[in-house]
Amino acid sequence: MPDSDDIPKCEQCTKSICCQYVTQQIDTPRKKSEFSQMLWQVSHRDVEFYKDSDGWFIMFNTPCEHISSEGMCGIYHHRPDICRDYSNDYCEFDSPAEEGFDLYFKTYAQLLAYCQKRFKKWP
Question: Within 13 Å, how many C-alpha atoms sit on residue 96's CB side?
Answer without folding.
Answer: 4
